[in-house]
Design brief:
alpha+beta; Jelly Rolls; eight-stranded mixed β-sheet; globular
């Protein structure tokens, strides 16, 4: 049976957008959840780092639980744990917009773990928090409680992860992302985390997208 590639791609994209849950998008009192608002120009010092206040406004950086005030810009660490902001001139793939954050645990061993966190109020209508990630899966916490994550879909560049925050709606606390990953486009949604049957449908959409990407490169 011949498959219509255009219709197949359109269906896959529609399914991914469905499970991405962008309806009712809101940040509550959180800011810069997509990392698109650095204070420019960012001029690294001799250590290749810039102030986190300028690179990631609204966010606090942590190394093994201790706060840090400087992050790399368009650069990575060769072994020590690090937080870095990357733009479209970097060798790191940008997941969305112009800027993406990389969290690097120490290497080898991963004994020192980086994190970024921000204190804010979850929107009163929020049912889930969602974000793009690649090259690892960070743990996500709110007010000291870990949020269980599920995969909601994927593209050749990133995976969409999400977790239930309905129990935190309207509450104020720190939202923290911890561990190794490329991270971008964090947002709250009024859509709940889909039931397992819907997640299976999103997996099919991701498979179709991957098939189309592979087919076009042949």
């Amino acid at each position: 049976m011949k498959i219509n590639n255009i219709n197949l791609m359109g269906t896959a994209l529609a399914l991914v957008l469905l499970v991405e849950g962008r309806q009712g998008l809101s940040q509550g009192t959180f800011v810069n959840l997509d990392f698109e608002h650095p204070v420019l120009p960012l001029t690294p010092g001799l250590d290749g780092r810039v102030s986190i206040t300028n690179a990631l406004p609204g966010w606090t950086g942590y190394m093994d639980g201790l706060s840090c005030d400087r992050v790399f810009y368009d650069d990575i660490s060769l072994g020590a744990a690090a937080i870095s902001l990357h733009d479209t001139n970097s060798f790191i793939t940008i997941l969305q917009g112009r800027y993406t954050v990389l969290l690097q645990p120490s290497f080898p061993g991963g004994t020192i773990v980086p994190a970024i966190g921000q204190v804010g109020t979850v929107p009163s209508t929020a049912r889930s928090v969602r974000f793009y990630e690649a090259e690892g899966i960070p743990s996500v916490w709110f007010a000291g409680q870990q949020i269980a994550l599920v995969s909601l879909g994927s593209t050749p560049t990133y995976t969409i992860l999400g977790g239930d925050v309905s129990g935190f709606a309207g509450q104020t606390g720190e939202l923290r992302f911890q561990g190794g990953a490329v991270l971008d486009n964090i947002f709250f949604s009024t859509d709940p985390i889909p039931e397992p049957s819907v997640l299976g449908l999103s997996a099919l959409a991701a498979t179709l997208l991957g098939w189309r990407f592979w087919h076009r490169r042949r």
